[in-house]
Amino acid sequence: MGQALQGVFGSMVNFIGTLIAVLLDQSDSRSDITRARENAISAMIVFITTILLQIATRVCFARAAQISSVAKHVKNWELSEPTQSSTSDYESPLQHLLTIQKKIWPWILSVFMIFVVTLGVYPALTAKVRPVSHASPSIWTDVNVFVALHIVVMNIGDLIGRRLPTLTAFFRIRRGLVAVLITGLRFLFIPLFLACNVIPVNGQSKSFALPDFVFLFLVLLLGVTTGCTATSVFLSGPQFLVPNHDGACASEVRASQADDDVEHDPLLYQEEESSTHDAGVASLLLSFWLVMGLTAGSGLSFAVLAMI
Known about the structure:
This protein is 67% helix and 0% strand. The protein has 308 residues and is mostly helical. Helix 1 packs antiparallel against helix 2, helix 1 (2-24) packs antiparallel against helix 6 and helix 5 packs parallel to helix 11 (273-306). Pfam families: Nucleoside_tran. It is found in: Membrane. It comes from Malassezia yamatoensis.
C-alpha cells in the first residue's frame, strides 16, 4: 500500500508539473529541445520526491527497530531454526527451495505472468497512445498531458487493486489454478492496447482506434488487476503451506505462552514453526519471480512495440 501511495503521489506531481508547463507555454510553439527539458525537469521532481519518501521510510524503520516489542520479535526470528520432519530425510537449502517452489508453482507462475503483462504494455506501449482527433483541441488533448494523465490513472488503479483483497474476501484469489487462469487472461491487454490510437514512429494515424475514455478505462483496469492479483498471490501463496491456517486456536495458545512484554503477532506464533518458515521461504520465492516477471516483461515490451 505504501509503494502504491508513493506511485500515486509521484504521478500526481508529474501530472501537475506537466499541466502547468503546458499552460504556461500554450501560446508558444515549443521546440523538441524545450519539450525534452520540461520532461527532464518533471522526471527530476518525481525522482527527488521519491528519494525523500524513501529516506522517510528508512527513518521510520530505524525508529521502529528501537521499540522494545519489535526488537524482541526480531531476536526471536533470528534465534528460531526451521525444523525438519522426522519422517523425511534432510534436505539441503537448495533442495528445500526447489521443494517449496514445486508446491506453490501456480502462485509463482501467476506472479510471473502478472508483471510480464504489466511491463509488456506499460509504459512502453501505453505511452505511445495519442488522443483521438477532436474538432476542438484542448489542454486535455495535449500529448504530454495525455501521457501524464494515463500514468496517474494507472497508479490509482494499482492502489485500488492492492486494497481490494484486504477489504473483502470476494476479491481475494484463494486457489492457485484460478490465479493462473485470471492472470493468463490479462494477456488480452496486448491486443486491446494495440487497438487504441497508437502512433508508430512514422506518424501514420489509424483509420480506426478505440476512444480515449476506453483507453483510460483499460489503463485503470490494468492497474486494478495488477494490484489485486499481486496482493492475492502474496497473501494466499505462502498461506498455502500453512496447515489449517484458517484456525486461530493454536496460535492463540502459543501467544498466551509468550513473554508478556512482547505484543502478540500471529505471524510469529503459527501452528508449526516449520510451516511458518516454509511460508516465509515461499514469500521470498514469490518476490524473486516477481523480479523475473519484471525483467521478462521489459523484454516483451520490445516485441510488443515491434507490432506497431
